[in-house]
Amino acid sequence: MTSTPFGVRLRRAMDEHGPLCVGVDPHRALVESWGLPYDASGLERFARSCVEAFAGEVAVVKPQSAFFEVFGSRGLAVLERLLADLREAGTLTILDAKRGDIGSTMDAYAAAYVGPDAPSPGDALTVNPYLGYGALRSTVELARSTGRGVFVLALTSNPEGANVQHAVGERGTVAASMVAGAAADNAAAAAEGRLGDVGLVVGATVGSAVRDLGLDLLAANAPILAPGYGSQGAGAADVAVVFGDAAGNVLANSSRGVLRHGPDVAALRAAARRDAEELALALRR
Ligand SMILES: O=c1ccn([C@@H]2O[C@H](COP(=O)(O)O)[C@@H](O)[C@H]2O)c(=O)[nH]1
């Protein structure tokens, strides 16, 4: 819990380290390629190497909850420790758990992940707005009250997402309604001249969709988490083209693209630095 808003802390971190978020996605193949057993003990050593490699070195680390949940309570304990170690090192985290439900259930998810007594808090949480942007209200409010943020899925990096996210409803496309929701929630921050705390997830792989759907990402004053850079095929130049005038608010994520350089900690760190520099050059504001 902190009194400095998430958007302010994220902007500082990106200015200092470049616009890269490293994902901690312990896929079975990766864990085994690091010479580790694919069990809770291997997971723990994998996570520890990530802390050693990335703490204090990159703007943000994004653990993917699914790969920890696989191991039940022992996996969740590793996730909690990973988040705590990064927090202690002063490195921002986004917990990628993509929570989304009716409002009353979201209250519990909000308490679990962004509340003052959250057992495994990150600095921000990814949320799924498929039950409607309004269902995220309590999560947005609680996150802001603890200096945390949320990232709302808007245009995801997978090809199947377009079928839902490009669909046209009463007030335009589904994606546009998410951007409008974030813009409204970030308006007060914009008036203060700072980046908002309600981020959007927009894949670096979406091609011309941001333009085609007329999404004004810059006006949303939202941090933009852009997965798809690296293993999913988007390069830094693609990120610059996809986001245009909003490129300065983009935090590109790479998980496997960096992690494949492990288990050597120096090699992991060097890979992250190369990507952060490449992105900073391409997205220069
Ligand atoms: O639209 C989305 C939203 C989230 N993700 C997540 O990001 C990482 C990407 O991993 P890579 O290894 O860099 O492909 C992963 O955790 C996804 O669940 C996404 O890819 N697209």
Automatic annotation (TrEMBL):
<comment type="similarity">
    <text>Belongs to the OMP decarboxylase family. Type 2 subfamily.</text>
</comment>
<dbReference type="GO" id="GO:0006207">
    <property type="term" value="P:'de novo' pyrimidine nucleobase biosynthetic process"/>
</dbReference>
<dbReference type="InterPro" id="IPR011995">
    <property type="entry name" value="OMPdecase_type-2"/>
</dbReference>
<dbReference type="InterPro" id="IPR013785">
    <property type="entry name" value="Aldolase_TIM"/>
</dbReference>
<keyword id="KW-0210">Decarboxylase</keyword>
<dbReference type="InterPro" id="IPR018089">
    <property type="entry name" value="OMPdecase_AS"/>
</dbReference>
<comment type="pathway">
    <text>Pyrimidine metabolism; UMP biosynthesis via de novo pathway; UMP from orotate: step 2/2.</text>
</comment>
<keyword id="KW-0456">Lyase</keyword>
<feature type="active site" description="Proton donor">
    <location>
        <position position="98"/>
    </location>
</feature>
<feature type="domain" description="Orotidine 5'-phosphate decarboxylase">
    <location>
        <begin position="19"/>
        <end position="271"/>
    </location>
</feature>
<dbReference type="InterPro" id="IPR011060">
    <property type="entry name" value="RibuloseP-bd_barrel"/>
</dbReference>
<dbReference type="GO" id="GO:0044205">
    <property type="term" value="P:'de novo' UMP biosynthetic process"/>
</dbReference>
<dbReference type="Pfam" id="PF00215">
    <property type="entry name" value="OMPdecase"/>
</dbReference>
<dbReference type="InterPro" id="IPR001754">
    <property type="entry name" value="OMPdeCOase_dom"/>
</dbReference>
<dbReference type="GO" id="GO:0004590">
    <property type="term" value="F:orotidine-5'-phosphate decarboxylase activity"/>
</dbReference>
<keyword id="KW-0665">Pyrimidine biosynthesis</keyword>
<protein>
    <recommendedName>
        <fullName>Orotidine 5'-phosphate decarboxylase</fullName>
        <ecNumber>4.1.1.23</ecNumber>
    </recommendedName>
</protein>
